[in-house]
Automatic annotation (TrEMBL):
InterPro entries: AraC_XylS_family_regulators (IPR050204), DUF6597 (IPR046532), Homeodomain-like_sf (IPR009057), HTH_AraC (IPR018060). This is Transcriptional regulator, AraC family. One of its GO terms (molecular function) is sequence-specific DNA binding. PANTHER family: HTH-TYPE TRANSCRIPTIONAL ACTIVATOR RHAS (PTHR46796:SF13), HTH-TYPE TRANSCRIPTIONAL ACTIVATOR RHAS-RELATED (PTHR46796). The keyword Transcription regulation applies. Keywords: DNA-binding, Transcription, Transcription regulation. PROSITE patterns: HTH_ARAC_FAMILY_2. It comes from Siphonobacter aquaeclarae. SUPFAM superfamilies: Homeodomain-like (SSF46689). Residues 149-252 form the HTH araC/xylS-type domain.
Length: 265
């Protein structure tokens, strides 16, 4: 299994966190379990992935917020190229109500690109990551210009405070002078989930980073440092978002791609 990552061009740096590619070099079956991370994305893949109901995923699709457990299975050799977007990108790039794609995806195989040709066909005819990045970057910039949907400054501040500063919802509402209902409406429309759920996912992700980096003496230290009520609360939340306890995650998961681990049975 090989993984690579690239930074976006400057024109997309406020919308795209990075481009990534995952390739298998063994004709095996792998089970992946996407983990909620507060971000949507776009994936171009070799028609090798199936959802937990056995339905083949589109060759090119846009996905929204992940909030519940799901499993994807790959069959045989595959190559997957992804665009990891910022939380607001469904609204600011594509002009979509973000909650319409929560725990769902949008088939982009019929989307048009330059010269009225299908975007998916353009990508299939390209052969190298640099070409895929060029096609997708041009497409995303085209969508941004078409919709002209800038991010609300207050919402941007809320995202920054919740995602990187560990602020509480009460602190965010007081700083922005927004009512609970107004903040809820803005998050549902622009991010796809409630601010409370987004905050919970951010705290879970912070705990997950600490687990990955092994920056603890014992597992209970993570729950304490991330301000969970107690150890059982931490384990319960971890299992809710990952399907495994923290100890099981360490033993049974292989994260070649962050937040897209292979799960060993």
């Amino acid at each position: 299994m090989h993984y690579r990552e690239w930074q976006p061009p400057a024109s997309l740096s406020g919308y795209v966190r990075y481009f990534w590619m995952l390739e298998s070099d063994q004709p095996e079956t792998f089970v992946f379990r996407p983990i909620p991370d507060g971000c949507p994305g776009l994936i171009f893949q070799s028609d090798s992935f199936f959802d937990q109901e056995g339905k083949k995923l589109p060759g090119l699709f846009l996905y929204g917020q992940t909030t519940r457990l799901n499993e994807l299975t790959s069959a045989g050799l595959f190559r997957t190229f992804g665009v990891y977007l910022y939380p607001h990108a469904l609204r600011t790039i594509f002009g979509l109500r973000a909650d319409e794609l929560t725990d769902s995806c949008l088939d982009l195989t019929l989307r048009r690109y330059r010269d009225d040709s299908a975007l998916h066909e353009q990508l299939k005819h390209a052969t190298a990551p640099a070409d895929w990045m060029k096609v997708l970057s041009d497409y995303l910039l085209q969508e941004i210009r078409r919709h002209e949907a800038s991010l609300d400054p207050g919402l941007h501040q809320a995202l920054e405070r919740l995602q990187w500063a560990g602020a509480s919802l009460r602190e965010v509402r007081e700083e922005l002078r927004l009512s609970e209902r107004t903040l809820e409406r803005k998050f549902k429309e622009h991010i796809g989930i409630s601010p409370k759920l987004f905050s919970r996912i951010c705290r879970f992700q912070s705990a997950l980073v600490q687990l990955r980096q092994q920056s603890f003496d014992k597992l209970s230290d993570i729950g304490y440092e991330q301000e969970y009520a107690d150890q059982s609360h931490f384990i319960r939340t971890f299992r809710e978002f990952s399907g495994l306890t923290p100890d099981e995650f360490r033993r049974r998961s292989a994260e070649v791609v962050e937040n897209f681990p292979i799960v060993r049975r």
